[in-house]
Amino acid sequence: MPDPILEIDHLSHEFAGGNGIHDINFQVYAGEFILLAGPNGSGKTTLIRHLNALEHPSSGGIRLYGRPVTANLMLTRKTIGMVFQDADTQIVGDTVAEEVAFGLENLNTPRAQIREKVDQTLSRINLSHLKDRNPATLSGGEKRRLAIAGILVMDPEIIVLDEPFANLDYPSSRHLVETICRLNRDGQTIIVATHDVEEVITLASRLLILDDQGHLVRDGFPAELLGCLDRFGIREPCFSRMGYTAPPWQT
Amino acid sequence: MADLTLFSFNAGTTALHDLDVRVKTGLVCMLSMTLFFAGFFACLICFLALYPLIRSQGLTLLHLILRLKGFLLLLIIMAAARAVTVPGEPVFSILDVEITRQGLAQGTLVAARFFLVMVIGMLFAVTTRPADLKSAAQWFLAPVPFIPEKRVGLMISLFLRFFPLILAQAGQTADAVNARCGSFRKNPVRRIRSLTLPLLKKTVMAADHLSLAMTARCYSENRTDPAFNPGGKERIFLIAGAGLCLGMVLLSRESVRMIFW
Fold first, then answer.
1. From chain A, which residues contact B within 8 Å (Cβ)?
2. Which residue in chain B is spatially nearest to A110 when comparing CA positions?
3. CA atoms of B176 and A244, how far apart (whole Å)
4. Of A21, A30, A116, B210, which residue is most buried, by most CB within 10 angstroms?
């Protein structure tokens, strides 16, 4: 087995009012599509914010290519791209192209290279036609794809998406699933944190389940864990509930 | 130009749109300062010089008056205040309040100057992308010691980006309060409190999320410098602007003498 990109080692984060996450252990390998599922308040967001050192653990740690994620924050954040739940509060550019360029400008990339990479990334995410649009005028799904483009342009090894399907209608969710699926097929490692696994469970190569106390209670193949989802407060997908085999959701 | 609002950028391909934002900012400053001591005739010349630019944005004088009507009302009040407070030769009196010729002249002149400054500002806002404004601020502040120009530039950009968002959130909060009969409360303090506290909480949370999102994308002050895209007519505009300012100063020698000597 190849070396993992990311190793989460006995990670705990305690909050004063309780909850938090406790003794989390898992590894992330290149090319994986990991679905991190759990009910509201289970600590999914807290956990993924530790992955690129936006939060500091109470105990335990995370290693990126064998080195603590805090050793080189710039490298960590460039390697692990984070797409937050609310796209509106993370878009800083006046136009779609400027928004995508933000990360590269932070890395002090030469302007000519920024233009080239922005064009490539917009084309990859199918947003080229919206290049000069004000992000505020985009639909929810387009904003979510723009947020992914803003991360993708920085060439991350892993893209982490926090509740990417929240507040999206069916066509937008479909587009987003197609985008995520295509990225993963191209070799991108994906981690999706969600409380509703319906949209992507058939695409994921691995399912991690957090219970409502912030413990990692299951780590395995999605098909093998479908039956126990309800027990941990996560809705079992319709096809599984009705006894069907799993077709890819987006087809 | 039906959607044109006072301070919003309207995409276009006019000469003003193509003009380098640094030149545009310089011209706005130069003209605004010149208007400070411009006389009537100089104001008229300035307006005539600006009119083709106003027309190039698809506006007529009537459009302009209609769009600036709120502001014009303020100017009329300001002119009226001058008319009754400046001593001089009385023209007529209402309820023992004398309106003087000098007061009327000064009031009208000040109103004309403010009107022109507003028109210049509107032309600037309508033809300048907020991102260019940020770049210009950063460029102008770069030589000033002890001022972190990149941070200031980002602050301007974030303010322009989030101000409409905060206004939208205020509208949503007000709707939510009114949906639960908040508008029937008589106590204004309670009404303000029920609007401002949730809005403040939302705004602070949005700022927190934004800060995390920026940190996650490696935000640093050592960023790539902004790019400027000169349209090629900068020299013509600079010469024309300087000529106009010089002409206005020459036509307003009396005012200049009064202010400086």
1. 49, 52, 54, 74, 77-78, 81-82, 84, 86, 88-95, 98, 102-111, 114, 132, 136, 150-151, 154
2. B224
3. 43
4. A21
Q: How many CB atoms lie within 10 A of CB A47?
A: 28
- Give me the residues of B, 36-75, that contact A with CB < 8 A: none
Residue A90, beta-bridge partner list: none
Collapsed DSSP state (helix, strand, coil) of residue A26: strand
pLDDT, tens digit, for every residue of B210-256? 888 888 998 877 788 878 878 888 999 999 999 999 999 888 877 66
Q: Supply the CATH number for residue A77's domain.
A: 3.40.50.300
For B220, nearest residue in chain A (alpha carbons): A106
| Overall number of domains in chain A | 1
Within a domain: A119:
yes
Are the beta carbons of A111 and B227 separated by less than 8 Å? yes
Classify residue A201 by its DSSP letter.
Answer: T
Contact B217 A105 (CB under 8 A): no
**Nearest CA distance, A147 vs chain B (angstrom):** 10
Q: Is residue A247 part of a domain?
A: no
pTM: 0.76
Rounded Cα–Cα distance for residues A161 and A81 (Å): 9
Domain residue spans in chain B? 15-129+230-260, 149-216
Q: Is A132–B210 a contact, with Cβ atoms under 8 angstroms apart? A: no
Q: Pull the structure tokens for residue B222.
A: 């050592």
Question: A58 lies in which domain range?
Answer: 6-241
- Indicate whether A92 belongs to any domain: yes
Of A32, A72, A28, give the one whose Cα is nearest residue A48.
A28
Mutate to test the interface with B, among A94, A107, A152 (most CBs of B within 10 A): A94
User: pLDDT tens across A141-182, in order?
Assistant: 899 999 999 999 999 999 999 999 888 888 888 888 998 999
Beta-ladder partners of A59 = A12
Output the CA torsion sign for A104, A107, A110, A113: negative
The Cα–Cα gap between A42 and A2 comes to: 30
Q: Is residue A56 part of a domain?
A: yes
